[in-house]
Design a protein that fits this description.
20% helix, 4 helices, alpha+beta, 10 strands, six-stranded mixed beta sheet, 168 residues, single chain, two-stranded antiparallel sheet
Amino acid sequence: MAIVGHQRPDFRTISDFRKIPLSPGAYDLESFVEPDPRERSAVFTMRYATVGISNCFDGEFPESIRRMRLDGAEVLLWSNAATGSPDPGHSNRINYSAAYAQANRMWVACSNTVAENAYGTSLLVGPSGEPLVILPTNQEAFGTATFNLTMTDDWTRWHDHLDPRLTK
């Protein structure tokens, strides 16, 4: 279980992050205690944006991403080592990232490992759910996009229509 320290430009740690929730395999479940679902929000105010951090299996839970948005995240940074076929079309990360972006009116930067048993396909998605950059499945690559954070300013309009039980 990795704990990742997030650092400021002066290299001071601003917080720690624990992978949540645990994947349902023996390695995680026999070695670690499942955190409380209310702890499924890792949001940090950085220099240019408020970001939510999701680590691999964390991103399989839409309620965790929604909680991050409710806690102020404008950008989701989702790092993966998702395994599977590197053949084009096999990455569910495209669908998840687009859905998270659109449903939460946020930007999504999703990175995934490129390997023989991993499907690459890192991507950048705008708040409309439209992928701006999709990188190859089978080779390392670099992509960029400009994130205009004012495009997420209409979140309040969406937020006000949510089930009140979800906004607490």
